[in-house]
Structure formats: C-alpha cells, structure tokens
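I hope you will forgive my troubling you with a question about protein structure. Could you please explain, in whatever detail you think fit, how the structure tokens follow from the sequence? Thank you for your consideration; the sequence and its tokens are set out here.
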Amino acid sequence: MAPDDRAPRLHRVRRGTGAPLLLIMGMGGHHRTWGEPFLSLLEKDFDVVAYDQRGIGESERAQPGFGIADLAGDAVRVLDAVGWDRAHVFGVSLGGMVAQELAIRYPERVRTLTLGCTYPGRGGDLTAPGPRRYLEAGLTRDKELAVRTAFEVNVSPAYAADPANFEVFHADALSVKVPMAVVMMQYQAAVEHDATDRLARITAPTLVVTGTADEMMYPANSERIAERVPGARLELLEGLGHLFWLEEPERVAELLREHAGREGLPAGARRAPWESLTARVTRRWPRSSWRTRARRRRSTGRWRRPSCRYRTGWWRRSAATPR
C-alpha cells in the first residue's frame, strides 16, 4: 500500500546519531513542542527526525477532508525522504493515532512502536475537558489566551506552577505558525479515527505511555490500547499531564531507549534481567568513567559506594579506614 505521492511537502528537522527514531506530534503541535531537553537526550542514542504535520509551520498547506490514514501516508513519505526503510516510531496524541495506522498499514516500516497519550477509536473516551478549553481559546484569536490555555490543559498542576516552565512553553509555542483552521481539521480527523478492531494486527513491539493527570486524553484510552495490542506494555506516569515528555524528559527518554532494545523479540517478550542490567550500568558507568573514579579514590584514600541503582555486593571504605 503506497502513500499518495500528491500529498503536501512536510518540514522536518533531524539531529543525533544512532538508531532511526521518527517522532510524530499531536494536534496543534510541531517539532518545537518536543522540547529541547527531551531532544537533547534522544540525540545521544538515536538519529531523530521530527516533522510538522500538513498545514503546520513550513509544511505545505492542508486541504480539508484528510483523515488519520492520510497522515500515516505522510509519515511513510518522511521515512522515504530521509532514506529509512524502517524506524522506531514514537507518536503522541493525534500523532499516536497516526502511529497506530502506520504500524497497521505499513508494518514493515516500524521497528518498535511507542504510543503516548492517545486514542484507539470506538470504545475510547473523548470526554476529557482539555480539548474543548483548548479549541475555544484558540477560536478567540487571542494568542496569549490560547497559549496560556494550551499550557494549562496540557501539563500537570505541579508543572504549571513554575513560571519558568510557562516561559519556555510560550516561546516554543509561538515559534511556529499553527493555523486554527488546521487544528480543527486535525480534531475532525481524530474524532473519526477508529483502529480498535485492527490493533491486534500490530506486530511491532509496543509500549503505551500516558500521564495519570492527563486532561486532554484520559488514561483509560491508553489502557484500552494496551489490552488490544498483542504483547503491549503499559506505563502509567503518576501525576504527569498530556505533555509528559516535557515534565520528565529523562524518564521518557530512558523508556524509549529501553523499548528500542526489544526489537526482534517475540510479542510480549522481555530481555533477560542481566541483559537489561548490563546495558543500564554500561550507559551510566562507561569504562573510562570507572577508571577516572578509581584514580580519584586511590588518591584520596576513600572508597565510596557508587551512586548506582545496582549496589548489591559493593563495599564502602571510609576515609578513616586505613587501606
């Protein structure tokens, strides 16, 4: 099934080195919505491509009537444009619906699938209060009100309480043009999306992630998706909002790194505990880092327990203890 070659040209950004990772943003968002802290973490392990949906920013104008299947075709064209046969895919909200269609219609293009704060279709729940507040504020044509409302409904109260977080969100939100007419087209496509009965066709290892304080998309939708995708793993991020990767970028980046390691495993399978342990310890304590710390300990006469989660079997010698 080939995507439509007549579809609009899409703006994209690319950074990092490593395994290919395609980021698919949600309704009203764009490549800056991922946040610099999150992208900086991902680029250490992945060759990251983030693109703007049709009609957003520098991407070509959107025409009314497109659906989620058309947006999945757009994602395939982005993969083709960067020369990737297959990639790890992370889609959020509307982008998570696109990622579902991508994995169902083009399974050969998806190495692993991560679905964030998204919706399955029939049987799901679209009654969360956030989207209505967001759309009503956008239709007022008051940019400041729209950005403030978007911030409040997309993040947790704890994150919203810090004025510095809003300043960063405000700058990113206004850095790319997002026509309200396109947002309304995206909303219509989301309402019409229905992959519920086809989720069982997904063969890629699947991780489903959502914040428990999400006011844009209730967590029950993610739970329903995880129940229907064979072997899917569900991660509920306690107290986080819709844009959970902004609130805890380190945690979400680690989830993506860990999940990418499941490529090639049977559905529902997990790596042996010692494989996961070795990978994590190696990432946090590379060989050169061990040597540096050993030299410091020899020079100070102090042996300290490493600040690592895996401490079993370690001994600590205080400065007062002779070597």
About this structure: DSSP finds 13 helices and seven strands in the chain. The mean pLDDT is 86. The longest strand covers residues 110-116.
